[in-house]
Amino acid sequence: MQSTDRPETRLATRLAFLVAGFALACWAPLVPFAKDRLGVDDGVLGMLLLCLGLGSVAAMLATGMLSARYGSKPIIIAGGLGLALILPTLTVASTPFTLGIALAAFGACLGSLDVAMNIHAVEVEKGADRPLMSGFHALFSIGGFIGSLVVTLLLSAKAGPLVATLLCSAVMIVAMVAAWPRLLRTVQAEDAPLFVMPRGFVLLLAALAAITFLVEGAILDWSALLLTTQGRVDASHGGLGYMLFAVAMTMGRLGGDAVTARFGDKAIMLWGGVVAIAGFAILLLSPIAIIAMSGFLLIGLGASNIVPVLFRKGGAQKVMPAGLAVAAITMTGYAGVLVGPAGVGFAADHLGLPGAFWLLALLLCVAPLCAGTVTRNRDQEEGEADAPRSYGSMDA
Fold it and tell me: What is the DSSP letter of 57?
């Protein structure tokens, strides 16, 4: 098997994360164009957008099975090239049915790539002498920023949705072709199980991923309303909260590997969770708008490296095959993004929006409380002798 600790394999992994974030962000500015082209109301548009999520979740489950048998490389290539080929069709689909099919296929490619690239990242990190997962996840965020910026600029220059997506697809194809020969050729044993029911430690990791992604999805969908209804900012500045959160999360992940190498996974889980919870408290309690807004920075910084730790531990555990564990963690995390905003809305109906955000902070308390369990320096399977490697002296 080829070495996993090579600059070219790390580059290929970063390109996969970059393409995934870039592709998803390219679609977001096209939503108003799709609505106008089809002439549908908000209800139909919501159902169409759900197709993307359903396609992603279905593909995530299948990807775990396929990667257990064939490895992550062919799935990364197929998913990345599939995104590039399908993206332009989202601008020309002329009926709700055809757009729904295209979005489901787009979501399936995105979900497949999401799982496969995380499996690949786990393998690459295992061969390295330092943590790499946070940096990989930072590239997803950077790709999202670049994608939304490029499409917005092209549309502002009157390029048109089809031309804009064709140019973006060309960039994605170049990136995937560059990554192709540099990806690891890892294949599991022929008798590897195609499905294992998640249990025990993997269920804990999956639950923590769902909570963390739920918080991110809730801030994306509800932060602007929270700020405007409480009179912190006017409607035109409602997006500042999520912008601060996203910038802080990206910066936290860019420096996350170095921090993890110095202090260890346990410190990341424990103090990251504490900082994020403190951010919620400042956001909800401070009467001064500028101080309250700093809460988004703390939430983003604190939560930024929790998910990379969860993926790392999912790849190291022995309860089930690493690829299936990563797929389970990814799928439940994505379910948190899908279900979370609706759950916040339900809670807000009964407790008010600030009360719903306090519930998010309470849920996030699980992360620091479980830091010791998640990062204890021993195998997560009874009878296993070799403990997974940990980073930093504070993991002991």
Answer: H
Q: Which residues contact 346 (CB under 8 A, 6 or more apart)?
A: none
The 10s digit of each residue's pLDDT in 254-268 is 999 999 989 989 999
Residue 314 in contact with residue 202, Cβ under 8 Å? yes
Helix segments in the chain, DSSP class H: 7-27, 31-38, 42-70, 73-86, 96-126, 133-156, 161-179, 200-229, 240-254, 256-263, 265-285, 289-303, 306-316, 322-364, 366-369, 371-375
Tokens, residue 303: 């939560």
Under DSSP, is residue 215 helix (H, G, I), strand (E, B) or coil? helix
CA 15, chain centre distance (Å): 15
Residues in the chain: 396
Place of tokens 């918080």: 215
Structural domains in the chain, sorted by start:
7-182 (1.20.1250.20), 200-379 (1.20.1250.20)
Q: Cβ(90)–Cβ(106) under 8 Å?
A: yes
Helix axes 73-86 and 7-27, enclosed angle (nearest 10): 30
Q: What is the pLDDT of residues 66-104, one digit of tens each?
A: 887 788 899 999 999 999 999 999 999 989 999 999 999
Q: 0.85 cut: is pTM over it?
A: no
